[in-house]
Amino acid sequence: MTMLEIAGFEKRFTIHHLNKTMPAIKDISFSLEAGEFIGVVGKSGSGKSTILKSIYRTYLPDHGKILYDSAAFGVVDLSHITERQMLHLRKYEIGYVSQFLNVMPRTTCRQLVTNALLEMGSTEIVAAKEAEKALAHFEIDPQLWDSYPNTFSGGEKLRLNIAMATVKKPRLLLLDEPTASLDHQSKLKVREIIEKLKAEGTTLVGIFHDIEFMEGLCDKVYDMQTRTLTVAETVGVGAES
Predict the structure, then answer these.
(1) In 42-201, which residue ranges form alpha helices assigned H by DSSP?
(2) What is the pLDDT of residue 101?
(3) Which among 98, 136, 146, 192 could bridge 176 via Cys, Cβ 3.0 to 4.6 Å?
(4) What's the CA gap between 78 and 62, in Å, rounded?
């Protein structure tokens, strides 16, 4: 079953004070089946993050389709569904992890992960237990669990961001440089969770600065320079993040 298909995708950005429109990416097409992991590789500025943000509907494409086989609405074009439908998909089906943490102020680390589980229908007892397991897995100091994330280091914020997204076990998970500021041990923790989610059927689209991290993890690789989709064995050939 095809979970995600991007066809003829193009995106431009307007620089209003210069009254200019600049092309960002064009002619992007690839698809992946349910449970597959595709890695997107290419030079900085090639538009990798733009693809992920467009799937998540932070951006709207100027041309093309982004077809997603949702549990709630069937096959939909993410660039044309209603805001209400997109909010539903973000809440229940599509997760997004970036290098940056944007959360409600004055909400503790523990509350953020617990609330993510409560949104999915978990009971308070189960949510509290699973939240603690997730925080412990990503080695966030228990002394920080009841602190506000604005006091965290960059690496701690990133690990919390990953915990919040992965604990919901989304049907589709978008990973935008999720290991960029992590040490080797933390990267292994992320890889372990990705492998577990993949085994449970989650479909993933990921961008990684560390190409070696992707080896043995991705099923397919899309190269932004050549506009080609290949099997995972060729990962890293001519690619640079």
Answers:
(1) 48-55, 83-92, 109-119, 124-137, 154-166, 184-199
(2) 66
(3) 98
(4) 13
